[in-house]
Amino acid sequence: MLNENFIVTAGFCWDVTLQDRFKNPLYLEPYGYKVYSQNDEDGIIHEIFKRIGCTDKRFIEFGVQDGLESNTHCLLYEDWRGLWIEGEKKYYNFINQKFHSVIQSGQLKVLNSYVTRSNINQLFEESGFTGEIDLLSIDIDGNDYHVWNALKCLNPRVVVIEYNAKFPPHLEWIMPYNENYIWRGTDRHGASLKAYEILGEQLGYALVGTNISGANAFFVRKDLVEHKFVEPATAEMLYNPVRYKYLKFISGHPPKTCLRYSGEGMAGDFDISGDSFILHNGFYKPEYDEDGKFVLQWMRGHNCESFLHSSVDMPKKAKITFDNEIEGLEIIVCIEGGKKQTFSDIKKGEQSIFPVIEHDYSFGDILKVDIEVDKLWSPREVYGTDDARPFGIAIKNIEVFQ
Questions:
Q1: pLDDT tens for each residue of 196-205
Q2: CA of 339: how far to CAs of 266, 328, 334, in Å?
């Protein structure tokens, strides 16, 4: 007897089949897990490359939205590098803020463009991504089939593409191409798994699996398969229906920023070098509270491995160089739970050294620098650029030292 919370997804036959797949190590479903992917794609991608190996560890993903939950975010922590393309300007701006450190390092390149079958090759070529790469991930909720079919300048070893699991594995269905198409949350998107199986065969790829939630299909270039995956490589063998109960995997606390190279995930990140701690660039409005205050913090111990493995003492001075158009800044240097010292009416372009109040630092103590400003400005106001994101104070450099 079924309980009231049991949900049948598409049909019992595929749930029965799924149980059998967990007994066969060639199927990919048992290896799925989530780190930063939307569902279990991170684990499946890891397993695929465990079987076929990596070459240059380059990826391309388009349709990443804000990037926090994407198929290639996790790869940044394994020293992969690549290209993200996102059409929505608000998401592009968000990525530039929250992935600031990996973009600045050159590990990640980001383009703001909608991908079509007429521009896909040009976008890749102009970004310096041609020839063989390890991974291509496609998720644009509509013309996915057509842009993959139009791809000529790239030879990815693995392709991840969203399929339309509304259609059972024997049905071939493809959404007609529409360059201006916007997905409205209906079943009109992409193509069925059978259609992708046939397209992959034409392009030289074998279908090797789908994830348990019925969202993505995984293809490996035929010269790399070598009996390492389930055969025959057909939709009938590898299909999963949409399983709504598995559409949202949970993995720890929700991500708010890219933690790669990051101190506290700010627009400018901590760069530990010798006896100093340096913060580069400006701060974006989301890092401010409602009163326009921003807090920088150095913590001894927790989340700061450098303090645990070196003889560096906590800083005693803070040298701040301002590069902005704001007058009348107020700087507050304080110790968490202790005294504070205020420096008022700081002028633009000034460089000043502020002594930090002496304190007997112990494990877990925090040094905070609170920065208060009277107004926020944007690069458009000051420099005449197209960037209208509001900034607070633009700090050219902060260095704390003994």
A1: 999 999 999 9
A2: 25, 23, 6
| Structure tokens, 268 | 């400018």
What gap in Å lies between CA 219 and CA 213, rounded to an integer? 17
Q: Phi, psi (5° rounding) for residue 13?
A: -60, -40
pLDDT digits (tens, 9 = 90+) for 341-365: 555 555 555 554 444 444 444 444 4
Question: Which residue type sits at 111?
Answer: L
Query: Cβ neighbours of residue 169 under 8 Å, at least 6 residues apart?
Result: 192, 193, 194, 234, 235, 236, 238, 239
- Characterize 213-236 residue by residue with b for buried, 16 or more Cβ atoms within 10 angstroms of its Cβ, and e for exposed: bbbbbbbbbeebbeeebbeebbbe
Q: How many CA atoms lie within 13 A of 81 on its CB side?
A: 13
Cα three-residue angle 202-204-208, rounded to 5 degrees: 105
pLDDT of 183: 87
Residue ranges of domains in the chain, CATH in brackets: 12-246 (3.40.50.150), 270-401 (2.60.120)
| pLDDT for residue 12 | 73
Token readout for 66 is 């804000």
pLDDT higher than 50, residue 323: no
